[in-house]
Specification:
Elements (H helix, E strand, L loop, with lengths): L4 H16 L2 H10 L10 H7 L3 H6 L5 E4 L10 E2 L4 E2 L12 H10 L18 H6 L17 E2 L6 H12 L8 H4 L4 E2 L7 E2 L6 H17 L16 H19 L5 E4 L29 H12 L1 H7 L16 H9 L11 E6 L2 E5 L9 E4 H4 L7 H4 L5 E6 L2 E6 L13 E8 L8 E8 L6 E8 L1
Parallel strand pairs: 10-11
Antiparallel strand pairs: 1-4, 1-7, 2-3, 5-6, 8-9, 11-12, 12-13, 13-14, 14-15
Helix pairs in contact: 5-10, 9-10, 9-13, 10-11, 10-13
């Protein structure tokens, strides 16, 4: 049976929704994407198409999706020793099509055994040479789709322990309830704002919020909406911007070459042994919608544990510190794609005595989103120009143990710094339960200090 990848993806989504009991969602999907004669409506047929009869019996699967760009996959050939149908040829992600990137995360999930080999190259089984079928590449002219391939990442107690040590600092620590219960929910009052339930994961939320605002304010396809109107988005628009922001964060963490998305599972994939105790999350990943934990795990997988350790000044540093707070390394990973420990420009060498040098690693280049820190006021750190003057007038603000967002509606704010001007900055704190916008009007004079003219809410 030869079917298109779209029909397989749709049937997988319908199967997932059916198992979750989401009948209304299935009805909406059937309305937007009606079933055809080629649709797969039988679970047995679906397992047969995916060559999963044996896996279904053994009940040993992995639910991680690895996205690999610049790959040409063959629609009618089988990939690896498991006989999984390969995906159509795809192109490199573009800024305007990152929605498709994230949509494909859920539509193209494959369930594979934990021991399936994946070498990151175009390796096909002997069937290809035996049949000698000419490879076909499906050219897509209507829209650019993401380069991606479903493949497992071996989930073992050892690899999970490395994850926990990197994330939490110790294999005996668990994710706090503040992290477990934190998703991406919008405010009813400020339509663009992501709400934070309790303290802890504010660094992740602020980074995603900043990227969301970049999409909403400066990269929106609707040119008719300008100024303050962009801060009044529809539900569809803000959801799309959230999707684009999350995709951008992971794509940047993967050095714009690949991105890995962690998808939740309903079952454990291994039995905890040795010093590792069941954590309740990393054995199956968090259930439910996109959460702070899933996004953080996905960013780590996209960058890789090894590269993140190399980024840090001290390789044993964790991404989540005391009391569940995000470290600077985690915020830098989400904002800049590198989990460096400092916020100054480039690297710095310090003389440690006896001819020894200590390398302190900083920001490698100008970022799209900036960062400002209250610690600089205390002379504890120095924020470099790469973060002070980002490409877009949006800054994540570090005020001791909390992160929030400061932004402007004027892109030219960063290009006209030499002339006197008056401009507005907007402040958003997802933990403050803001019901109205906070606007700061700033007057600047050349060769003079900045004066805060007024602080008032916008009704």
């Amino acid at each position: 049976m030869v079917v298109s990848i779209e029909e397989v993806s749709s049937s997988l989504v319908r199967e997932y929704l059916s198992r979750k009991g989401l009948k209304r969602t299935i009805a909406c999907m059937d309305e937007e994407q009606p079933r055809t004669e080629a649709s797969i409506n039988n679970r047995s047929d679906l397992r047969q198409i995916l060559h999963m009869e044996g896996l279904y019996k053994n009940n040993k699967v992995s639910l991680l999706v690895v996205f690999v760009p610049h790959r040409s996959f063959v629609e009618e050939e089988t990939c690896s020793s498991q006989g999984i149908k390969s995906l159509p040829a795809t192109d490199t992600p573009s800024t305007h099509n990152q929605t498709d990137f994230w949509r494909d995360c859920s539509e193209s999930r494959k369930e594979l055994p934990l021991n399936t080999p994946f070498h990151g190259t175009e390796s096909f089984t002997g069937r290809e040479s035996e049949r000698k079928t000419e490879s076909t590449q499906k050219i897509r002219t209507n829209r650019t789709r993401r380069g991606m391939m479903a493949a497992p990442i071996a989930s073992t107690p050892q690899t999970v322990m490395e994850f926990i040590k990197l994330l939490l600092g110790s294999s005996s620590r668990f994710f706090s309830n503040e992290w477990r219960n934190q998703g991406f929910t919008f405010s009813d009052d400020l339509k663009y704002g992501i709400m934070q339930n309790k303290g802890g994961p504010c660094g992740v939320l602020a980074a995603v919020q900043a990227c969301l605002l970049k999409k909403l304010l400066f990269e929106s396809a609707d040119s008719s909406v300008t100024g303050l109107q962009r801060l009044r988005p529809s539900s569809a628009t803000r959801t799309q911007c959230l999707v684009l922001a999350a995709a951008e964060v992971l794509w940047r963490a993967g050095e714009e070459k690949q991105a890995t998305v962690a998808i939740h599972s309903e079952r454990n994939h291994f039995i905890p042994t040795g010093h590792y105790k069941a954590e309740g999350v990393l054995e199956k990943f968090e259930s439910g919608a996109l959460s702070c934990i899933l996004l953080t795990i996905s960013a780590v997988l996209s960058r890789s544990v090894e590269k993140i350790r190399e980024d840090m000044d001290v390789p044993t540093t964790s991404l989540i510190g005391a009391h569940g707070y995000c470290t600077q390394e985690l915020v830098n990973l989400l904002l800049c794609g590198h989990a460096v420990s400092n916020v100054f420009d480039n690297d710095m060498e310090l003389d440690s005595g006896n001819g020894n040098l200590t390398l302190l690693k900083g920001i490698k280049g100008r970022c799209d989103i900036g960062l400002l820190s209250l610690f600089e006021h205390y002379n504890i750190c120095k924020v470099g120009t790469y973060l002070q003057t980002p490409h877009f007038p949006i800054w994540v603000v570090c005020s001791e143990s909390h992160f929030s967002v400061l932004f402007s509606l004027q892109r030219e704010l960063l290009t006209n710094q030499d002339r006197a001007q008056e401009f507005d900055l907007y402040y958003y704190d997802g933990l403050a339960n803001q019901q109205e916008e906070i606007r700061l009007t700033v007057c600047t004079w050349k060769d003079a200090s900045v004066s805060w003219n007024d602080t008032e809410p916008i009704l």
